[in-house]
Design goal:
Elements lengths: L1 H7 L8 E6 L12 E5 L4 H9 L1 H11 L18
Length: about 80
């Protein structure tokens, strides 16, 4: 069911989902998390609009009901200069 739900998220890509993928780390630090969805927004208002969008709400309700645990991180990216 999870694989099918992940495939179906493609309809949300127009809204915000930019990258998705399955854990392939050899470090075993994933704490049981197996997949990631990364979304980028121009503003916090854009995040709020996405979260409230009916397509996101419908998908999230279906998807979250099939997960054991979820981790959501909202952050403001910072450029690191080395």
């Amino acid at each position: 069911m999870i694989a099918e739900l992940i495939r179906s998220c493609c309809g949300l890509e127009l809204l915000a989902v930019k990258y998705k993928g399955k854990n392939v780390s050899i470090e075993n630090l994933h704490q049981g998390f197996t997949h990631i969805f990364e979304s980028t927004f121009e503003s916090t208002e854009g995040v709020a609009e996405y979260v409230a969008h009916p397509a996101h709400v419908e998908y999230a309700n279906l998807f979250l009901a099939n997960l054991e645990k979820v981790l959501v991180i909202d952050y403001k990216p910072t450029t690191v200069r080395v």
